[in-house]
Write a structure and sequence with these properties.
Distance between the termini: 62 Å
Strand order of the largest sheet: 7-6-5-8-9-11-10
EC number: 2.1.1.-
Number of helices: 16
Protein name: Class I SAM-dependent methyltransferase
Helix content: 40-55%
Enzyme class: transferase
CATH topology of the largest domain: Rossmann fold
CATH superfamily of the largest domain: Vaccinia Virus protein VP39
Radius of gyration: 23 Å
GO molecular function, one term: methyltransferase activity
Number of strands: 11
Strand content: 15-25%
Organism: Saccharopolyspora griseoalba
CATH class of the largest domain: Alpha Beta
Length: 411
């Protein structure tokens, strides 16, 4: 029995993709548009060393497994298979075969896998700075190839299904601005500001004095340059710093777009209370982040995402976030789920990476480009299948008992 046949026995005989293995075996849908190639015994060694998604990810990142054709189509073709679903006879057979490959084909962990430099306390300032740098301080140019002109690395809001990614990112920033009721002369704090998209949008289109903070030095440098080039230096600023170290207070609004995923469950009370302390009475917070669909899932991501994409990331159900906001300085006034929009956003990023593949590889390295190709396609599928969601939650810091909100939403 060839190794292609083994994979077919695990995944099912009705696969819509073709599987080819280094031993010459073939299975699945012959001559399909998408093909999984097991290029080397090293792929099996990775599976032996780390059974499951981590071993598969390592094998793909290192090039021992290749996906020919569209990655999203390939992932969508494979059913979710747990070890318990594999018949006992096949499990025993695989264990024996894989043990031999691990012995004769030892593997090294791909260089792009995150390895903490020191054992810092989870979500301490030092550790947060390290893991944010790992993901975001890759190369601004690499992110330009993936994200496009908007340089926004968070869920866009599509006004229509045929809107471009840039139009949808503009709509996202504008929706946040409208929910916050931004007006000329006000002050905005954008925590976890990325490359400054929200900061520049608020300054340019609403006349707001906006301060953004990010733990990524490369993001801050890119944003400050973009602010100067757009003539917004009198209104906008991005600093390389932890949101916990912002000394200023008296902001009219706070936006947090894609930061809460990095905060951690235990830190949510201090996170929301610190943001409330930054606001004037009646000020608003818009919290935009990825969430779990319900409370039955753990906070920690899978091993692939945790090792290769967002170390120390934690996702909570929206109810947990709403309760934390309510208990720590905010009255929640509105929330909405935008998970379908994130699937569309990721489809746009995947298309950008595929279109710019050669230059993205030259800029960020082949291993990293392969990781991004895999994780973005997998995340697109996750949002489509309701494995994860994206919620915007709007809260206000009461001025006595006055929420300073209209009777009906004005945005």
């Amino acid at each position: 029995m060839g190794w292609a046949d083994v994979f077919t026995r695990i995944l099912g005989s009705d696969l819509s993709v073709e599987i080819r293995a280094f031993d010459g075996s073939r299975s699945g849908a012959r001559d399909a548009d998408v093909r999984l190639e097991i290029r080397s015994p090293l792929a099996l060694s990775h599976l032996a060393a780390a059974p499951g998604e981590l071993g598969l990810a390592r094998a793909y990142a290192s090039g021992a497994i290749e996906v020919h054709g569209d990655m999203y189509t390939a992932l969508a073709s494979f059913p979710a298979v747990a070890l318990g679903d594999i018949p006992p006879e096949l499990r025993r057979e695989l264990a024996i075969k894989l043990a031999g490959y691990r012995l004769w084909w030892p593997v090294k962990t791909p260089a792009v896998e995150h390895k903490p430099k020191r054992v810092w306390r989870r979500h301490s300032k030092s550790r947060d700075s390290e893991v944010i740098s790992y993901h975001y301080d890759v190369s601004n140019r690499f992110y330009e190839y993936v994200l496009g002109d908007s340089m926004a690395y968070t869920c866009a809001v599509f006004p229509s299904a045929d809107a471009t990614l840039e139009q949808a990112q503009f709509e996202k920033h504008d929706l946040v601005a409208r929910k916050l009721d931004l007006r000329e002369g006000q002050r905005l704090l954008d925590v976890g500001c990325g490359w400054g998209g929200m900061v520049m949008h608020a300054a340019e289109h609403y006349g707001v004095r906006a301060l953004g903070v990010t733990l990524s030095r490369q993001q801050a440098q890119w944003a400050q340059k973009a602010i100067a080039e757009r003539g917004l230096a009198d209104l906008a600023e991005v600093r390389h710093m932890d949101y916990r170290d912002v000394a200023e207070t008296g902001f009219d609004a706070v936006s947090s777009i894609g930061l809460t995923e990095h905060i951690g469950l235990k830190q949510l009370p201090s996170y929301f209370s610190s943001l409330a302390d930054k606001l004037v009475p009646g000020g608003r917070l818009l919290n935009h982040c990825i969430t779990r669909p319900d409370g039955t899932h753990g906070s920690r991501p899978g091993k692939f995402i945790g090792r290769y994409v967002f170390p120390d990331g934690e996702l909570e159900p929206v109810g947990t976030l709403v309760s934390a906001m309510n208990d720590n300085g905010f009255e929640v006034r509105h929330e909405e789920n935008l998970r379908e929009h994130y699937a569309l956003t990721l489809a746009g990023w995947c298309a950008n990476l595929d279109r710019n593949w050669d230059v993205a590889v030259a800029e960020g390295g082949l291993d990293r480009a392969r990781v991004w190709r895999l994780y973005m396609a997998a995340c697109r599928l996750g949002f489509e299948r309701n494995v994860v969601q994206l919620h915007q939650v709007l809260g206000t810091k009461l001025d006595g008992t006055d929420a300073k909100m209209p009777l009906r939403p004005s945005w």
